[in-house]
Amino acid sequence: MSLFVNGVHINLQEMSFLKDILIGSEAHFVVLIVQSSSIFSELFGYTACRQLSQMLISILFFHVSEYILALFIHGKSSVTLKSLLISKHYLVAMVCSLIEYLIELYFFPGLKEYWWISNFGLALVVLGEIIRKLAIVTAGVAFTHLIKVYHEENHQLVTHGIYRYVRHPGYNGFFIWSIGTQIMLCNPISTIAFAVVVWKFFSGRIPYEEFFLKQFFGSDYEDYMRKVPSGIPFVR
């Protein structure tokens, strides 16, 4: 069946066929949206929302509080965005850990349901945060994000408070915090990777820093080294 409208030939059967296709496509599109929403809800359910929100809050609190303390202790003129401690390598590591989390969440969702492991990681995050912030507050102006290679008047040897038990509580706190973030996400690969990479970094940084500290404080620091552990496993 067909008709002419303003001189244009219209095949009603073809129009009906196209209408059916359009309606069918819309129906399939709606079904696809519903199915996608269902998958998204299942994929990013309570477990993922809780773990990822904990991760986001942990990262934000760590870096913002680090910057605020630096401003308060050293003053605005001495603080830059580097005090946020966000480097290219750090961003790459965090992105990789997120990719691992999403892949494992999709293929092995049960892996993320070990709440005792995730909660243990959260406890480590809180513990590491407390240790590092105690280190900053206790050391005051003596705490800097860059290694001092020249002795300044306000650079004093701090051995009280948390420094009575750990020579480098700031490093110790970050070491615990960084590993804790990955245990909290139940990321087995990133947990091992973070532990190895962060340990390797501090195992090289501590001897370098203490070379100058021994020059600044002489036998006092050498005695301190013998009595107090570094705070990083297997690093004297």
Description of the molecule:
- The chain is mainly alpha-helical.
- It contains seven helices and two strands, in the order E-E-H-H-H-H-H-H-H.
- The protein has helices at residues 12-43, 46-74, 88-107, 115-139, 169-184, 188-217, 219-227, and strands at residues 2-5, 8-11.
- Strands 1-2 form a two-stranded antiparallel ribbon.
- Strand 1 (2-5) and strand 2 form a beta hairpin.
- It starts with a strand and ends in a 9-residue tail after the last helix.
Order of helices and strands: EEHHHHHHH
| Average predicted confidence as pLDDT | 84
* Rg, Å, rounded: 28 Å
How many DSSP helices? Answer: 7
Q: Structural class of the secondary structure composition?
A: mainly alpha
Identify low-pLDDT runs: 2-6
Number of strands: 2
Helical percentage: 55-70%
User: How would you characterize the largest beta sheet?
Assistant: 2 strands, antiparallel
User: What is the 3D shape?
Assistant: elongated
- Spatial strand sequence of the major β-sheet: 1-2
Intertermini distance: 92 Å
- Give the DSSP E fraction (strand runs of 2 or more residues): under 5%
Write the layout of secondary structure elements.
Layout: E1 2-5, E2 8-11, H1 12-43, H2 46-74, H3 88-107, H4 115-139, H5 169-184, H6 188-217, H7 219-227
Antiparallel strand pairs: 1-2
Helix pairs in contact: 2-4, 4-5, 5-6, 6-7
